[in-house]
């Protein structure tokens, strides 16, 4: 079992670099610990592999992990579409992703990004980033080439980076931004036809739930229908006129939810309560990635006992069987459907469209042009963690608040949030030469 002791930064400095105690810093400790790969070393956190500098940041008893990379190196670490797709689709994706990043950086940091000092997150909430080392994989070469061929190109609107939303599949038509998230709309985030028929695996999907399942899922989100459900439907204004609502009628009246909230409730609480039922099965027997895949759907209500198969009904608790009424959600696409459809881009590229034609189609006629872009990007990999495990397959330089502590050995390193700082736990077997330490957040600035 690995242990850590509250010994000083001076002790760690001596253990790593061999610097004499007289030249070491006082026993006050830093806010950050940096890991800088040496040579071909890769650092691993979670499922991501990294060749850039990783920085562990301590803020108020929690840890963040940030990687710093040149802008296009960040883009090559994205895994938004398969690298096997046509070159034009990859180039369109590269420009859209670069523009999205530029928009994020142009507006400045806020919230967790400001707290932990990063420009963009690494999750689906921003762009799906799998790590800078992924670009070394030969299978990623077509994507890396697409990023390099379009280097420096972005979409601009009135001289500023466009907010280039994109999603997996729009089905037959994309959505105006105001119909999904409200607001006044955008001249380049409008609805257009998306030629995905016969191409996207998310062309159409169907979800069926009994009345009691619907009631319980909504109750889990704190929403009471007030009685037995008697009807449900989508109240949809004309395209471009604003957000749709889901209306659930019961003996006690109407419950109205925005379409985005309804989708979130079904995606979060549906699988928790009914893991055998949601997400629903696809025609090929596998499951859909989410319970409600998009905002483009219609709802119908059918009174009477649900027509579920006997096998399916056995997956439900006894108390849920035999209730009257069935909700049917029939939709198309996967994702928010605003901006470029990735499967639509592939379909256009398959038919011979160039990347600028794809972008112009989905973004109101905007065309790629040279942008004034930053050189470096800080990517937020994790935040609010109590502990972080980082594995190194080779040596790396260890730094504390910018001061080098020397070259550290390969192995599994752990960083823990402790009172006032970061506890560093070296790999098994390294303790004798590398004493564990607590790095406190009291280092003079």
Protein described:
This protein is of the alpha+beta class. The protein has helices at 9-17, 71-76, 87-107, 111-116, 141-149, 177-181, 211-220, 259-273, 310-313, 342-350, 355-362, 431-434; strands at residues 32-37, 43-45, 48-50, 53-59, 62-70, 120-121, 153-154, 156-157, 160-161, 166-167, 205-210, 229-235, 245-250, 253-258, 297-302, 326-331, 340-341, 369-370, 376-385, 387-392, 396-400, 403-408, 411-418, 421-425, 437-440. A seven-stranded mixed sheet has the order 6-19-5-4-1-21-22. Strand 13 and strand 14 form a beta hairpin. The radius of gyration is 26 Å and the shape is globular.
Low-confidence runs: 1-11, 13-26, 305-311, 318-323, 432-436, 438-445
Q: Shape, please?
A: globular
Distance between the ends: 35 Å
> What level of helicity do the residues show?
10-25%
Main-sheet strand order equals 6-19-5-4-1-21-22
Strand pairing plus helix content: what structural class?
alpha+beta
Radius of gyration, in Å, reads 26 Å
Number of strands: 25
Q: Tell me about the largest β-sheet.
A: 7 strands, mixed
Number of helices: 12
Strand content: 25-35%
User: How would you state the average pLDDT, rounded?
Assistant: 87
In terms of topology, how is this protein built?
Elements: H1 9-17, E1 32-37, E2 43-45, E3 48-50, E4 53-59, E5 62-70, H2 71-76, H3 87-107, H4 111-116, E6 120-121, H5 141-149, E7 153-154, E8 156-157, E9 160-161, E10 166-167, H6 177-181, E11 205-210, H7 211-220, E12 229-235, E13 245-250, E14 253-258, H8 259-273, E15 297-302, H9 310-313, E16 326-331, E17 340-341, H10 342-350, H11 355-362, E18 369-370, E19 376-385, E20 387-392, E21 396-400, E22 403-408, E23 411-418, E24 421-425, H12 431-434, E25 437-440
Parallel strand pairs: 6-19, 10-17
Antiparallel strand pairs: 1-4, 1-21, 2-3, 2-20, 4-5, 5-19, 7-18, 8-9, 11-16, 12-13, 13-14, 15-16, 20-23, 21-22, 23-24, 24-25
Helix pairs in contact: 3-5, 3-10, 3-11, 7-8
């Amino acid at each position: 079992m690995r242990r850590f002791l509250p010994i000083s930064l001076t002790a760690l400095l001596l253990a790593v670099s061999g610097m004499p105690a007289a030249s070491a810093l006082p026993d006050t400790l830093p806010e950050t610990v940096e890991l800088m790969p040496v040579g071909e070393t890769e650092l691993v956190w979670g499922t991501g592999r990294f060749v850039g500098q990783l920085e562990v940041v301590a803020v108020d008893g929690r840890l963040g992990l940030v990687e710093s990379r040149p802008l296009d190196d960040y883009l090559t670490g994205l895994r938004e579409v398969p690298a096997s797709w046509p070159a034009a689709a990859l180039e369109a994706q590269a420009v859209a992703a670069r523009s999205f990043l530029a928009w994020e950086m142009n507006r400045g940091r806020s919230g967790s990004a400001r707290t932990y000092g990063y420009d963009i997150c690494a999750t689906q909430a921003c762009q799906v980033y799998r790590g800078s080392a992924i670009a070394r994989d030969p299978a990623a070469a077509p994507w890396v080439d697409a990023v390099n061929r379009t280097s420096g190109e972005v979409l601009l609107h009135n001289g500023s980076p466009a907010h280039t939303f994109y999603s997996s599949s729009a089905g037959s038509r994309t959505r105006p931004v105001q119909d999904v998230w409200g607001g006044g709309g955008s001249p380049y985030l409008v609805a257009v036809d998306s030629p995905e028929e016969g191409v996207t695996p998310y062309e159409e999907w169907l979800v069926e739930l009994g009345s009691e399942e619907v009631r319980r899922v909504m109750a889990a989100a704190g929403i009471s229908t007030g009685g037995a459900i008697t009807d449900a439907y989508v109240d949809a204004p004309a395209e471009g006129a604003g957000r749709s609502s889901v209306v659930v009628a019961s003996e006690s009246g109407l419950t109205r939810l925005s379409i985005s909230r309804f989708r979130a409730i079904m995606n979060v609480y549906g699988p928790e309560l009914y893991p055998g039922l949601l997400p629903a099965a696809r025609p090929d027997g596998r499951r859909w990635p989410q319970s409600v895949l998009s905002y483009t759907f219609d709802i119908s209500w059918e009174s009477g006992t649900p027509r579920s198969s006997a096998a399916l009904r056995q997956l439900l608790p006894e108390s849920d069987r035999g209730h009257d009424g069935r909700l049917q959600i029939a939709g198309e696409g996967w994702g928010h459907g605003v901006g470029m459809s990735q499967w639509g881009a592939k379909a256009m590229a398959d038919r011979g469209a160039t990347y600028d034609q794809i972008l112009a189609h989905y973004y109101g006629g905007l065309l790629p042009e040279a942008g004034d872009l930053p050189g470096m990007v800080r990517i937020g990999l994790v935040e609010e963690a109590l502990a972080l495990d980082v594995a190194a397959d080779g040596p790396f330089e260890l730094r504390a608040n910018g001061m080098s502590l020397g070259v550290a050995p390969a192995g599994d390193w752990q960083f823990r949030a402790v009172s006032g700082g970061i506890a560093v736990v070296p790999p098994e077997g390294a303790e004798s030469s590398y004493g564990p330490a607590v790095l406190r957040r009291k280092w003079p600035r």
